[in-house]
Amino acid sequence: MTGALWVGNLDWEITLRPDRKRVSTDHLRSLSALATLMRAFAAADDAVWTPHPVDPARVPDVAGLEPVRWLHGPLGDARFDTVEAWAEAEWVDSLRRSPSGRDPSIVVDVHDRRHMQSVLEGLRAQLPGSRIVDDMTALADHLANGGADAGGGEWIVKAPLTAAGRDRVRGHDGRLPDDGRRTKIERLFETFGPLVFEPWMPRIRDFGCAGLVAEDYVAVEPTHEQRVDGYGRFRALTLGASGSPADAVRSNAKLIGETLRSVGFRGPFGLDAWTWRDGDTEELHPFGEINARRTMGHVAHALARRLGSTGGTLFVGAQPVPADAIPLLAAAPGDPAAAWWSASPGA
Fold first, then answer.
1. Which pTM was predicted?
2. 228 and 333 share a domain?
3. Domain that holds residue 96
4. Cα(234)–Cα(296) distance, integer angstroms
5. What b/e readout covers 54-74, taking b as 16+ CB neighbours within 10 angstroms?
6. pLDDT digits (tens, 9 = 90+) for 102-113
């Protein structure tokens, strides 16, 4: 087939789980619906693939966005002029007409939170008390030695390869929980091995920066401000963040991009950062997440260009769509996932 294939594998990190846990049909349906936002990158008659079928009626025509072909299910023998994915994976690379020269294992390595922890330690930019914990004994010892003091006793352990607030457990009082959360932590260790421990800091603002690592350069977009819910799931993103935190985030994104390039990574990436309150001071945690893939930041910048906007906000969630917004994805029975674009940052 001619044209480009845009692979909306938003479930990619789930496929990397050591236990190969299957995502529920409802969750896969929501991820597939959100994957339709990849049409922001597509040219006329390109194809967008989603792991689960999406009713085309949920995806309204939008002036500035090209019509695309919708595909789902096994790709098998599908061949296109080019293949682009939300995240690189071995099976995505196998769809290319010729070898890309990119090693999908590099994507896994740099996306691993344990890798990022080593990067932060090298830059001396890790949160106070953050570390890799090998097992329940190491976690208990770290807590007993004040590992959660910086968070006032609040803390979190995270699996190394997850997204959207999955596979993490939050604790409090600076000690191991004695309820069902303890069992969940034990299962995380059994599944993933060593986990990432961080104090739970009182967050104020969340930022992000989308970039691209090419063979001989790194490019980064202007910083955006984003909103996440209490579980760490993305909800909205506003372009055009400014001020000293935003400037620092963009500079750090360039630094991370060069680091990724030095280990052989090529492709889109994103950096998440956030500020937290330390007494009366707003401190920046400059490296919250390194995302070695496309992010909603890439989507928002692509939408702004296609819609002829110099700014605006991309919303994702189940909230009612404002009358003056541009609908991008409609909710459906059994799937509240929706998305829209608003030129009003505070909408």
1. 0.89
2. yes
3. 4-101
4. 8
5. beeebbeebeebeebebbeee
6. 666 777 777 778
